[in-house]
Write a structure and sequence with these properties.
Blueprint: H1 3-6, H2 21-26
Amino acid sequence: MTKEKTGKDKPEDKPKPHYELDELLAKITPENMHPEISIGPPVGDELL
């Protein structure tokens, strides 16, 4: 459907956001970091 038929923009009509890694990393604070989680000991070749 098009905007003329639905009155809404199609998803492909919106530009994709552009992210820079350094800008995203600058937003990390101790308050918005999640704690580490334990998923158990290595069970395969994870520990090399």
